[in-house]
Specification:
195 residues; mainly alpha; 10 helices; globular
Length: 195
C-alpha cells in the first residue's frame, strides 16, 4: 500500500507541475492576445486575415507542427480559429485541430515503433527525446497523459512511447486526454476573445 501511494503521489506531483507550466503558458498567450486585440490595429490586408481564407493551409501547417514535436503551440491555432464569429464554427475548428493533434500523436507512435532502429530515430532521440526517457521509465504510460494535457511535446512523447512498443490500445486511450485539453483551452480562448 505504501509503495503504491508514493508512486501515485509522484505521478500527481509530476502532472500538477506540468499542468502549472501549461496554465502559465496559456495565461501568457491569452494576455498577449487580449493586449494585441485591444491595442494593436490590424487591418483587413494584414497577413493574418489572408490566412483566414486558407484553412487547409493552416491545418497542414498545424499537422506539420504537431508531427515535428509541436514547434508551434496549439493555442496559436486556437486563436486563429476565432475567425469563426459563431461558437458553432469555432467548435468545429477546435474539434478538427484536436483530431489532427490526436492523429499526429498516433503517427508519432508508429514512427517510434517502426523506425526505432533507424538513424533518424537515433538523431531524434539524441537531440530531443533523451530528456524524456527518464520520465517514461519512471511513469510509463502516464507520461502520455501528462504530455497530452501539458506543454510537454506530445508527438515527441508519442514517438518515444512507440519506440518501446507500449501497448497500443492503452496508448490510444491515454492520448484521448489531448482532446480534453483542446476543449478546455479552446473554451478559455473563446472566453478571452469576449474580453
Amino acid at each position: 500500500m505504501g509503495k503504491w501511494y508514493k508512486v501515485s503521489r509522484k505521478k500527481r506531483r509530476f502532472l500538477l507541475k506540468n499542468l502549472g507550466k501549461g496554465l502559465l503558458w496559456l495565461a501568457a498567450i491569452v494576455l498577449l492576445f487580449v493586449i494585441i486585440k485591444r491595442y494593436v490595429p490590424i487591418n483587413d490586408t494584414s497577413w493574418i486575415y489572408k490566412l483566414y481564407d486558407k484553412p487547409l493551409l493552416v491545418y497542414l501547417i498545424f499537422l506539420a507542427s504537431e508531427i515535428i514535436v509541436g514547434i508551434i503551440p496549439p493555442e496559436i491555432f486556437m486563436i486563429w480559429a476565432l475567425k469563426s464569429t459563431t461558437a458553432k464554427f469555432y467548435v468545429v475548428d477546435i474539434i478538427l485541430l484536436s483530431t489532427i493533434s490526436y492523429f499526429a500523436g498516433i503517427l508519432g507512435y508508429f514512427i517510434g515503433k517502426w523506425f526505432h532502429d533507424s538513424r533518424f530515430y537515433t538523431f531524434l532521440h539524441g537531440k530531443y527525446l533523451y530528456q524524456y526517457e527518464k520520465f517514461l521509465k519512471r511513469f510509463g504510460g502516464f507520461l502520455v497523459i501528462v504530455a497530452a494535457a501539458t506543454p510537454l511535446p506530445f508527438s515527441g512523447i508519442c514517438v518515444l512511447v512507440g519506440s518501446v512498443k507500449f501497448n497500443f490500445k492503452k496508448f490510444l486511450l491515454f492520448a484521448l486526454v489531448r482532446i480534453i485539453r483542446f476543449a478546455l483551452y479552446g473554451y478559455i480562448i473563446w472566453q478571452a476573445n469576449t474580453i
